[in-house]
Write a structure and sequence with these properties.
Structural class: mainly alpha
Shape: globular
Number of domains: 1
Largest sheet: none
Number of strands: 0
Distance between the termini: 62 Å
Helix content: over 70%
Length: 120
């Protein structure tokens, strides 16, 4: 009985580990798409994981930054404005990307302008 339980536990743990690896791969693909200003790649990565930006935006971090912060740092205007259009206003307020952009000198960016128009 103990042997069967141990084997089931190992199989279950292996299954959970592969799910984590798959989710990590999708997260890396999303971050790379933002850095490369690749809107099509971002959509493909989201679709491959059956994810929506509005549901994962608050929890997904790339190098401890939100996706909009990453887009601002990499001048990824196409992806940044796309993300802003897909994420709820309340989430954008909660993450405070606007305040971050102002305090880090990104007020001249097209992403900042779009974000300010959406949040205000």
């Amino acid at each position: 009985m103990k042997k069967k339980l141990l084997i089931a536990g190992v199989i279950l743990a292996a299954g959970m580990n592969s799910s984590f690896v798959y989710a990590n791969d999708i997260g890396v693909a999303i971050c790379k798409s933002v850095i490369g200003n690749d809107k099509h790649g971002l959509r493909l990565a989201l679709r491959s994981g059956n994810l929506k930006l509005r549901s994962i935006y608050k929890d997904l971090r790339c190098n401890d930054k939100s996706l909009i912060q990453l887009a601002l740092e990499n001048s990824a205007d196409d992806v940044g404005t796309y993300i802003i259009s897909k994420v709820a206003k309340s989430t954008l307020d909660e993450v405070n990307d606007l305040g971050w952009a102002e305090s880090n000198g990104f007020t001249g960016s097209a992403i900042y302008t779009e974000l300010k128009n959406r949040v205000d």
